[in-house]
Amino acid sequence: MRWIARSTVAVCAVLLLSPATPATAASPMDLTSGFYVNPNSAPATWARNNPSDSRSARIQSSIGSRPIARWFGNDAAIGSTVANYAGAADGQDKLPVLVAYNIPNRDACGGHSGGGAGSASAYRTWISSFAAGIGTKPAVVIIEPDALAAYDCLTAAQRTEMAGLLEYATEQLKAKAPNTYAYLDGGNAGWVSPSTIAYRLNEAGVRNVRGFSVNVSNYYTTSQSTSYAGQVNGFLGYQAGFVVDTSRNGNGRGDGWCNPPGRRLGVAPQIGGGADLLLWVKTPGVSDGPCGIAPTTPAGTFNPDLAIRLIDGV
User: Fold this and answer.
1) Which of 99, 107, 207, 210 has the fewest other C-beta atoms within 10 Å?
2) Alpha-carbon distance 135 to 211, whole Å?
3) What is the active site of this protein (predicted)?
């Protein structure tokens, strides 16, 4: 809760400024003392539950001890679930990274992580509760990975519905989570052209939030990703903030997107690095689906062999 004290100091400082001096709102990074490390992430839980496995210590040291985003899907008690998670981080004066991943027709192109809320109205209720669960606590939120990039796999009616739901999500986070930096997902450098994704971001309400995310669950290098984000900003017509997922981009793009071989962990989460933030959004070691080098591991399931391959870059 030390961010409250910091906010008070910041407010007092603003009051001392002359009327002509503009006040700048504190970022969630200013209100916290580093990223939150989830003790119950999939790799940390696996390492804790398998202490005698020869891979356990390496997985915990290289992955489980790192700050990794937590993904939230369909949950009837999403408000309290999010409140408990953000509250745990707040209690340590740390910044949590959350992923809202429950929009209808999600993963429309890949299909391995399909599902989401059963209707548009159910999603509105869910995302409203999600935002309320964060409340005034500092947080970073990635909004619906792949949703905008996957438009070409949707019908015209589905695209219209999705754009409206994403805009509603941005409005809810803006209204109910004032100390959150939220980012609409903008795909990756090899999927949709910068001009097209910029149009979709504007349509989906990107101006209501901090900006957009790139490379979520993908492998493009940080330089490729920041270059792509810069091109997107050129078409947006203003300079939006952006974040890059570096969880698996240490060796750059490989053969395909679904559990390709030869990938490596990227740089650890940090402020800056050519973006607002470099983050581990995708959990390293969690399968993209039953494909590639994990042909029998369902999407969203942790596989220690995948984790070790990312550590070793093989």
Assistant:
1) 207
2) 19
3) 146, 288
**Residue 50 assigned as binding residue:** no
**234 to 110, 151, 196, 197: CA distances (angstroms):** 28, 21, 12, 11
Planar angle of CA 163, 142, 46, nearest 5 degrees:
130
Does the annotation list 38 as a binding residue? Answer: no
Tell me, what amino acid is at 119? S
- Give the pLDDT of residue 9: 40
CA distances from 290 to 110, 122, 232, 253, 276 (A): 11, 29, 32, 19, 33
- The answer as to whether 27 is a domain residue is no
Task: Decide the pairing of beta strands 277-279 and 270-271.
Answer: antiparallel
pLDDT tens sequence across 153-211: 999 999 999 999 999 999 999 999 999 999 999 999 999 999 999 999 999 999 999 99
| Residue span of the structural domain in which 217 resides | 35-312
CA dist., res. 41 & res. 288, Å (int): 16
Q: State in Å, rounded, how far the first CA of the chain is from the last one.
A: 42
Active site residue 93: no
In this structure, what CATH number is given to the domain that contains residue 196?
A: 3.20.20.40
Whether 237 is covered by a domain: the verdict is yes
Q: Is the pLDDT of residue 265 over 90?
A: yes
pLDDT in tens, 41-72: 999 999 999 999 999 999 999 999 999 999 99
Kindly state whether residue 58 falls inside one of the protein's structural domains.
yes
Classify residue 20 by burial, with Cβ atoms within 10 Å: 0-12, 13-18, 19+: exposed
> How many structural domains is the chain composed of?
1
Tell me whether residue 299 is in a domain.
yes
In this prediction, residue 254 carries a pLDDT of 85
Query: Is residue 280 annotated as involved in ligand binding?
Result: no
Structure letter (DSSP) for residue 211 = E
